[in-house]
Design goal:
Elements lengths: L1 E5 L8 H11 L6 E6 L8 H4 L4 E5 L10 H7 L4 H10 L5 E4 L3 H11 L10 E8 L2 E7 L11 H19 L5 E5 L10 H11 L4 E6 L11 E3 L2 H22 L10 H8 L8 E4 L5 E3 L6 H15 L2
Parallel strand pairs: 1-2, 1-4, 2-3, 4-11, 6-9, 7-8, 7-9
Antiparallel strand pairs: 5-6, 5-10, 10-11
Helix pairs in contact: 1-10, 3-5, 4-5, 6-7, 8-9
């Protein structure tokens, strides 16, 4: 397996990206990493770059987290993200992963890798850890955050989301629900009601609407939400993890596998590391902008699983 990695993407790049890459590569002797960078890599990471399973490509620019996607495309056309995606598009890598500017990554992926036939826009599929059961898959969590809820758009991605979930977790018929303001089929916007009808008439295991207070205590496998709302849900859950860590660090609670330990240690983006960009002709994963080494390693683990399905 070959994973292309943008080491200049993210708030803590390149140091945390390189640390995470090192921790990952030493655990997998059957994987090759292809690093894309705009600067010389410090000798401190010689143990990584000297590996025969690690190769490095240099590009003149890297896209900053503060760059707008359109400005980046105009001012920095040859950069680490486009270089990485071009490598994927040519078939020289099995997947591409960046913790950098997600807007620029998504725009570049559409142009460089291309959308699948009949797919009009991508969607980001992320995984939320759930206590004592398999993770909850959620999409869209931000790829189309500036767009209104479009039933046709989200219905396009159900097949791929179900296939990924089935492949990763061995669930023959993953259940699907829609995040809404009520469980009744007539609740929500026109788009929500239309999607409800489309899914009701489909062969998918559709179980109706779900409200926000049931996200973490239901048996749902896949949750559909608009990109704007989905991104907010993800960030709210991240803030919850922060408070759980504060509680955990202030009481004597070191027992593994209990709920508080789960909430403080496992209920975090750091344990998932990457969201999968649906609808593309190639496999692209998007990491959190604030990813540390732990999150990068987890993201690469997610990429490896993605490669194998």
């Amino acid at each position: 397996m070959k994973i292309a990695l943008d080491i200049n993407g993210g708030d803590h790049s390149p140091a945390e990206i390189l640390k995470g890459a090192h921790d990952f590569i030493i655990s997998h002797d059957d994987v090759n990493l292809i690093l894309f960078t705009s600067e010389k890599i410090s000798p401190d990471y010689k143990h990584l770059t000297d590996s025969p399973r690690v190769s490095t490509f240099f590009f003149p620019e890297s896209i900053l987290m503060t760059d707008t996607p359109h400005a980046a495309k105009k001012d920095k056309p040859v950069n680490t993200i486009t270089g990485m995606l071009d490598y994927l598009a040519k078939g020289d890598a099995d997947t591409a992963f960046s913790c950098g500017n997600s807007g620029a990554l998504i725009m570049s992926a559409i142009e460089t890798v291309g959308l699948k036939e009949k797919i009009t826009t991508p969607a980001l599929l992320s995984f939320i850890p759930v206590f004592n059961r398999r993770p909850l898959a959620v999409f869209d969590v931000g790829a189309m955050a500036n767009h209104i809820f479009d039933a046709d758009h989200y219905f396009q991605h159900i097949e791929e989301a179900v296939y990924i979930y089935r492949s990763l977790f061995g669930v023959k018929e993953p259940s699907v629900k829609i995040l809404n303001i009520g469980s009744e089929e007539w609740k929500g916007t026109h788009g929500h009601r239309k999607l409800y009808q489309m899914l009701s008439e489909s062969s998918y295991r559709f179980l109706g609407n779900i409200e926000g207070d049931k996200i973490l205590n239901s048996d749902t496998d896949i949750l559909i939400t608009g990109g704007f709302c989905g991104n907010i849900v993800l960030k709210v859950l991240e803030s919850f993890n922060f408070y759980a860590k504060e509680i955990y660090n202030n009481i004597d609670c070191k027992t593994h596998n209990n709920l508080l330990h789960f909430l403080s240690e496992e209920f975090s983006y750091e344990t998932v590391g990457a969201a999968l960009l649906l609808g593309l002709k190639g496999k692209v994963a998007v990491g959190h902008g604030k990813s540390n080494a732990r999150a990068v390693k987890a993201g690469l683990e997610t990429c490896l699983k993605y490669c194998k399905i």
